[in-house]
Structure formats: C-alpha cells, structure tokens
C-alpha cells in the first residue's frame, strides 16, 4: 500500500501569467502522477491555496484535479494551512469538501478541558488519520496544549498525524522563530505528515518516527523561486506502508529551468553596474528559462534609476526567456540616502533630501518631478508634519489634514 | 512599645545593650531605636552575661547553692543583679521619607530598643514588574512574614549573583524560587544548566512548570522523551566551533592547530571529519616522522573530543553518534538559535544536562553563552542594547569555570569572560557554589549580590566576608549558624546586609493558582 503526502502547494501564489501557467502544470502533473501510480490515498497538509479564497481561475484548476482523483477512487485527507484558512470566512478547501473530493481529518469531540481528536479511517487501507490545522502566529499552540494525546496514542492500527506548522526539532536553515515542540504531538504514531516548512525533510526521534515535510511543489514565497534557481528540487513524498512505514521517498516534480544572475554592485558607479549586469546577462542562454536577476549593494556613485532594468528585461524576453524576475530591492545608491553632511537650516535639508529622492523616481510627470515635485513635497510635508493637537478629535484631524493635502495636490 | 533592651555602652560597630529580662534576644535579632525623624535598625551579633556581682563572689555563691544550699535559694532581685548583655551594631538609619542611610552616629545613650516589626521595614516593600521576591526578613530565627524582600531583577542579574553554601543548605531551593519569580518578568532571560534536572518538575512534582505562565515564559529542553510542550535537547555538531572548547577542555598547541585547520577546511563538518579520520591514512608522501607526530596528535585529539562530547564512531555507517543523544550530525541545527532567541525574549530556558558529563555540559553552555555575549556586544555597538532583557547564565559548581586553578592553567572560558566583562553588555552569571575561596578575589568582588546560606567552613566564610558589599566582619559566627533556608543578602543594591528566610519552594508554588486550563473554550477548526 502507498500514499502520497503533499503540502504547501500554494496554488494562486504566482502573479505573472507564465509562472501561473507553470504553477498549474506542476500541480496537475503531480496529481496525474499520483493517479498513475495508483496511490491508496493522498494527504494534503495545509496551504493547498495561497489565500483562503483564491480567484476563480485557481479554484477551477483545483476542482478539476480533485475531481480526477475522486473519479480514480483516491481519497484525499487534508488539514488547513496558515494561508488557506480564515477563522472568520470560509475557504476554498470547504468547497472541495462539500463536493466530496476531500476529507478534513480534524474531527474534534468536545470533552471539557481536553480536545479529543477522533481518527478518520481510510476505508481501503484501514489507516487512521487525525490532525490539526495550522493557525497564524502560533495560535495553534492552544490546540496542542489541550490535545488528548493519550486517546490518539491508545488506538491501534496504522496511524498518521497531519499538521501544519514549524516543528522546532525539524528546523535547519530557517531563521529561528516561533516553533512547535514535537513533544506536543501524540507519541508512537506511524507517520507525522507535516506542512509549512517549504523544503523536504524527513527525520525520526525517539517516540516520533517519520516526521516528514514534503516542502512546496513549486513556490509559496519569493525566496522559494530563488532557491529553485539555485538548484533546490521540489516535489512531494511517496510512502509505502504495511503495518508500519516501509519506505519514504521524495518524488521530485519537474519544474522550470532557471538561470540566476547574481550581481553585487557594491561600490560601483551606476554605469559600471549597468555594464556589469549587461555583460552577465549576455553570457547566459535564457531560452525557455526563468531568469532571476538579483542586484544588490550600494552604488558608489550615480543613481539606481540610471540602470535601465526594463530594457534588460525586454532583452532577455526577446532572447527567448520564459520569464524574467528582477530583484533590485537590495540595490541602493549613496546619493539617494542623503547628501551626507546635514548642514543648513531644516528647510534646506528637507529640500535637498526631496531633490535627491525625486531624482531617483522614474516617472515622466513634470508636476511631480524636478523642482515642482520638490515644491509640492515641501508643501505636503508642511501639512503632514504636525501631529494631532490634544483638543482636536481624531476624525476631525483626519478630515482636515486630508482636505488640506488634497487641495495642495490640486485634487479637489 | 515592648522594650527589648537599653543602650549602656560601647561604641560604633559594637554597642552594648542590656537585655530586658524576659525578652530572649538571639544572635541575628534586629532591634530598633526610635529617634526624632528616623529609626535606627540594629542587629545583635553577640550575647554575653552581665552581673552586678564580682566574678569570684559569683563562683563562690554558685558553690554554696550547688553544694549546700536549700533547693529554693535565690538571689535577691535576680533579674536586677544578673542579666544578659547584647553586642549590637547599627545597620541602617531609615528616615521618615523611607530613604535609608548608613548610620554614622550612635543611638541615644540609655535609649530603649525594641524588636523590629514589619512597619519598620516598609522601605523594602513593593514588587514592581521586574522585581523578584527573595525571602522574608528574619530577626534571629523569627521570620517577619510581612517584611518581604523584593530586589530589582535587572540590577542583580546584570551585576552577577553568587549563591554560596555547603551542601544541603538550600541552594537549589533558592535558585528554584528565584527562577520561579523570573518567570513573571520579561526583563531578564536566563540560561539554566540544570545538572541535576531538578528545576522543571517532572512526573507531577512541583517545579518551575507549575508556574501559571510557564507555557509562555519557560522553555525546557531534555535529551529524550520531553514532556508535552518541551523540547528535545539535541544540538547539531555543526553548531560547535573550536573556541567553544576554550578553557573547558585542555588541548596542546598542535591539537588546537589541527582543530582550526579542520574547522577552516570543513566548517560545520569539522568534528565529524576529525572523528572519522583514519589514522593510517594520514601523512602520505611525508617523512615518516612527520606522519607519526601527526597521527599521534590526531589520535589524542580524537580521544579528547570523544570523551568531552561522549561521541562514538559508527564505523559501518561512517557517522558520528552521541551516546546521550545530545549531539547529532544531522538534527538540532536550530536548537542553539532557539535557546538564544528565547533568552533574548526574556524567557527562562532550562537545559537538562543531567545526562552529560562535566565537559559536555560546559561546552553546551559555552555555545549558547558565546552567542548571547556576541549578540549583546553587537547590540551595544548598534546602540540597541537598551531594548534587550538582561541575560544571566545559571551554573552549578561555578569553580569548574571560574576557579583559580582553571583560570591559571587554561585560557579564558566564556563564563569567566562574562564574569569579568559581561556587565557592560547586560550579561551576568548566577553562580552556585560550595566553594567560594577558590574563586579569584577579583571575580568574587565583582559578583555584586551574594545570597549567603549556611556555611560551616571558616575559609569559605572568610572569602565571602572579605568580598561582601557590606561589612560582615562581625557576622562570621552568624553565617556559620545559618539554618536551612536562612540567608544573608549582601549586595550593592541593598542598604545593609539583610538577614532573610527563603521560602520553601513547594509551599510557595502551591500558594499560586495552577496554570489556567479549560476556563475558555477553544474552537477547533
Ligand atoms: N528555605 C527552605 N525551607 C524549607 N526547606 C528547605 C529550604 N531550602 C531547602 N530546603 C530543603 O532542604 C533540602 C536541601 O535543599 P537543597 O537541595 O536546596 O540544598 P542544596 O544546597 O542545593 O544541596 P546540594 O549541595 O546537595 O545541591 C531539601 O529537602 C529542601 O527541600
Ligand atoms: Mg543543589
Ligand atoms: Mn506554506
């Protein structure tokens, strides 16, 4: 017998069309593969969707593939993740459940102080499943605090616990933040199916064998794409089992091909930086690839706006790139920061700061740039710099300041 | 006012008081002299007999009474003729506005003294947010329940805390009480190396985990089978750097060079690489002698690291494993980070190091303490040290790291560095010890708060008295006779050396309501 374990699919994460297309293809490919391999059931451990109610396009994709699994007689068991759950509104997961394509495994029965989770039993294999969804900001700790562990530990058969959250013992490269200790989970179960950490990992501890995160299928946050480009394999987990777990294997899902262009422009003049980027970009073959251009560092002179990123993007796409992502937030210029010494009156310093900043803004509107932009900014600042006087109501203050500002911008 | 005695002579630091008959003064009793705008608090440090009758006559009379006398023979006005003289010293003058000065004058001659009451100690009261309760004021063996001593946790932990006592006098109980109160404060984070695994409270025992806010403010790590909510104490080998052994394990220069070389070649893998090195493969293409020296160095190094960290080499799998589960070549990569983060967020982190040998325990502490000190140093450079809670490292048998002998024979270790300069960075030591005399004077004097429990060893008492923040030169006997849980606080943060009774932890913890549970329903999705 075998089951597939997926998590953090983050359907709907991608905002650009080519990547949305890729996101769809990867997800569909994985579902097809599960069907083709004849898995007995599929686990989805949270963050199937990037938001609780994604747009119709995304919902349709999900509906279709979950129906495929349903038609193939493959039950799906799921918990919510931190992204696709909302305590106040519904979730696209509920839709899949209502359609009968998916079973939520969190079946609590109220037992006073303790939370008792009842196992859901898979009809074909007899496997028992229970689990908790992931809540934002570590709020799920409260669940675990009250979990009736003994009850889950006392059942027999092949038992799986599904969860969505960072287990402290499973962290490796992440920056340490709130995490859940493994000891909160019931001991001695056969498989701990996790979601939330975006890279595959599989470890065992005394009392907790097979604690597994499959990681994301493609990407659920910007950093995931960069990691993909650096060669990280993505996919899901396939588990063979009988009375116990027999084998856990990571199944890589074919994704895009990538090209990473990493430019350290620290100390370079803006023209030099632009030249370096161009030469690095010229040295790659972008055909059919997702190109991630990452520029960072503080320019020695010149402005970041001197580097024409849109032309670079255009060039790459013309060269056949599948998609181009440009990360330039780490790129700063000295001149932008301020002109150094803070000499002069406050007004002079403010004007100078506006001049420097506006010089970095790439918009073609004379009324917002150049000296007119500086004038407008100075006027706006004059309105906005005063905090609310004690004798004025908050609402009145807001109204007055807004009116004042809009009139100065000539927007009334 | 019930009079306890009357001033009849002496001078500064040694005032003679005649005891009122019927008031049974004890050594350590606190007395009060009421003066115009202030009260003077005095302490009894000696008791002796006084008599109106000349010594030889006394002896003769005693002979008469014992040998010849009728059974009911009595002195005429016995209380008048024979009495007890107390030697007292002034501790502090408390003014109307509750400000406290060191007393520079004597109480009025013939002035009457009374036993202290909680009213007189009002200046001690008040538990603010970051204040912790240490104990009750004690007058001799009488505990004044209303007079509670609260100290500013940030102050005392920044400036190092020493808890000295011989075995069984209540060090662990005191540490537990202090940590318990720290759980209420976010102003101090603590790393507790719990060598006896006695603080958390396992199997239904009362312990720190009984604190109502334990879930938020206490983090417990133990190598195996952590109770629900606590964590596996597993530290990845790649968190360890060669300098974490500094001053803890002795290495020769050649060994240190080898360690550094491996560290720079293999980074996080350096320990595994050393442990897995096959000695016979060393030094091909070198002269035989060089190869021999290298392989000897390596063999000794392997053995030292193996012993220090309790490692074993699994030759079949070609991996390094640890006997107690604490060090691991794969798992536990974030443990040290997590511990540090929790401390920097003002929590108390207890590490159950009971399964570790001495060196391994100190290395674990060293990994974490080094990081904390680094972070705090950096925070200071960036000007954001103010935002951080004070961090303290609680360590038993402190002479292992700050003892004279270790400090002389080895390089500095992180604990001694903290003892010397941690204060500048808000990082302090809480050192528990049976032996204070082996800690260098400079360090001892830098530990600005000492909670001295009973100690029958003269040499230990002398070391403490010499390094105390108050003049304890007359308190030698008092310290010798402190019972379990009785203590004297000497500190730059208290106006005079405070005699206290430390509460019994179990009783204290049981007085607080247990962790709230089940009062609010949670909706489970
Ligand atoms: N303040 C107190 N009131 C009542 N009992 C106490 C007090 N302090 C300690 N005890 C009791 O005295 C015994 C020894 O205390 P504790 O373990 O704290 O001593 P210790 O100094 O840490 O000893 P060791 O050197 O063996 O570690 C324990 O049974 C403890 O409960
Ligand atoms: Mg002890
Ligand atoms: Mn996710």
Describe the structure.
The complex is a heterodimer of chains A (412) and B (525). Chain A is of the alpha/beta class and 412 residues long. Chain A contains twelve helices and 18 strands. In chain A, the strands form four sheets. In chain A, strands 4-3-2-1-13-14 form a six-stranded mixed sheet, with helices on one face. In chain A, strands 7-8-9-10-12-11 form a six-stranded mixed sheet, with no helix packed on it. In chain A, helix 10 (346-359) crosses helix 11. The radius of gyration of chain A is 27 Å and the shape is globular. In chain A, 38% of the residues are buried. The longest helix of chain B has 24 residues, at 358-381. Chain B is built from 17 helices and 23 strands. In chain B, the strands form four sheets. Chain B has a twelve-stranded mixed sheet with strand order 9-8-23-22-21-10-20-19-11-18-12-13. A six-stranded antiparallel β-barrel of chain B has the order 1-2-5-4-3-7. A two-stranded parallel sheet of chain B has the order 14-17. The mean pLDDT of chain B is 90. Chain B folds into three domains: 3-121, no CATH class; 131-232 and 335-511, P-loop containing nucleotide triphosphate hydrolases (Rossmann fold, 3-Layer(aba) Sandwich); 239-322, no CATH class. At the A-B interface, helix 4 of A face strand 13 and helix 9 of B. The complex binds adenosine-5'-triphosphate, magnesium ion and manganese (II) ion (MN). The site of adenosine-5'-triphosphate has 13 residues of chain B, from helix 4.
